[in-house]
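During data preparation, we tokenized the protein backbone, and the record follows.
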Amino acid sequence: MTSRTGDEFEADLPVTDPRPPRRTGGARGRSVLVSALVVGGLLAGFVVVLATRDSSSARLAQTPLLGKPAPALRGVSLIDGKPFDLREVGERFVLVNVFATWCVPCQQEHPELVAFEARHAQIGDARVVSVVFSDKPDAVTRFFADRGGSWPVLDDPEGRIALDWGHRGEAR
């Protein structure tokens, strides 16, 4: 008969982890699942709202000027002193920009207008004209000298041109 030592008996026993067994799923798993469903639902709702709302062009189309002849637009440009009259532009598109040097969106869009004007001056299909809204002519000429832009810039000291063109509020 062979005798066994204590170490040999321990080798026959299964090895167990002294920590309690980990749960899979449970409350933590449910909270992750609920969170994922909430986020997924919010994203789906956002997509539905974007897909079913009116486009920006549909909102812009609600103007009293749409489908009517353009109001008069004439004056002497503050930039080069030349007269401008919309009736003499011909068949080209005209981008009318209501502008002020103190208007932050106007400052931000100005480089884009400079690029637009340069691109379309080469093609010959469009022009830019700015209408100064509630600003000083000397501030406007300095602004254009510093930041570029060679299109007509018409002073509108009483705001009449801007109102005729449907402008309500600050320059944009």
